[in-house]
UniProtKB/TrEMBL annotation:
A Pfam family of this chain: Peripla_BP_6
Entry protein name: ABC transporter substrate-binding protein
GO biological process terms on file: amino acid transport
Family: Belongs to the leucine-binding protein family.
Residue stretches making up the Leucine-binding protein domain: 29-368
Keywords: Amino-acid transport, Signal, Transport
Amino acid sequence: MTCLQAGLLATTAVVGGLAAPASAQTQDPIKIGIIAEESAIAGAGINKGAQLAADEINAAGGIDGRKIELAIYDNHSSSSDAVRAFQRAVSEDKVVAVIGSYISEVALALEPWSARLHVPFITTGAASNDISKHVHEDYDHNKYTFHEWMTSAFIADSVCDSMKQLLQPKYKTASAVIFSEDAAWTTPLDNEYLACLPKIGVKVLDHIRFSPDTTDFTPIFNKIEGEKPDVIVTGISHVGVQPTVQAAQQQVPILMVGQSSQATSGTFWKDTNGAASGVITQSAAAPGAALTPKTQPFMEAYAKRFGEPPPYTGFTTSDAVHVVAEAIKRAGSTDPDKLVDALEKTDYVGTIGRVQFYGKDSPFTHAMIYGPDNVTGVTLQWQDGKQITLWPKAAAGAEMKFPSYIHLDPAKS
């Protein structure tokens, strides 16, 4: 393992838990760049998910006998550091593709460099609709970018779909306040919330966007309590611990449901000292959700190796490494244009469902297809220190539980 230093923590890691066959030892490895936010739970999940997948592929003989070698870079949650890492991965490490980043602003900064350098880039955690929108609007230029996680619009649709099945039949969820951090990924998320919530019979009473630098949420929660919504629909990623802890301390009597990215991490209960109790969030997968035959074995392997359950990015990145490996096999080449053609033909059953990408004619070109036959995500709730999968019913079917201060009235029969 070699360490490169130039304002970045840049590590080229050869991953292979088991030795590849002898024939692989005489061939050059295939290098894949991993650019992520090492100090963040979701960012670290990208690195770890990639390592597990590379080890698995290498143990099975690699890609047509060639091992996968990962060039891992920490972008320190900085777009400029990520761009420098991308340039270095291409010029020095000679990667054939780059996977990474759960931050939309970072992914959007890397997209033009993927186009300029003709190197496929797959983001496995960022959500902004603009990532795939740019591919649709200028396909010939931006075709090298793929989006292997649900777009913001699809996350909102997933929240509404699950609310309709989980909350509408049992509780009077007729009103909501949207509560989102001000970020690139939440603008399209909130727009879709505003569209899909009324369709399931939920009136939006208020739409609150707060700075990610907010440290005191008391005034915001006081305002929301005064509006008396049935639920708070969230769009939070970088600040999930603070509002969760303060809501519990203040005993805000309103259920928080939606997307809380930090709550997808297996450490969230500990991070919030139990304040996560009752919190509901969307994720890629979770304990008890046998979305495919690969879901639970991956979770067990991840926990055994790293001592904690994977965040959503662990699932998506593991799948992405396999998707790239299969695309290289189909293409019979690492030529970027041939690799793009092969990636467009992806039909891979991974840990989170059937992975396919939308085509040129879709406004979500190269985004992952959303739907019951592909990927919908799961709804999980924190109960007694554990993530419990609530939806879809085929994957779980557990019952919801709430702290005593959360008030939800049973629906009238």
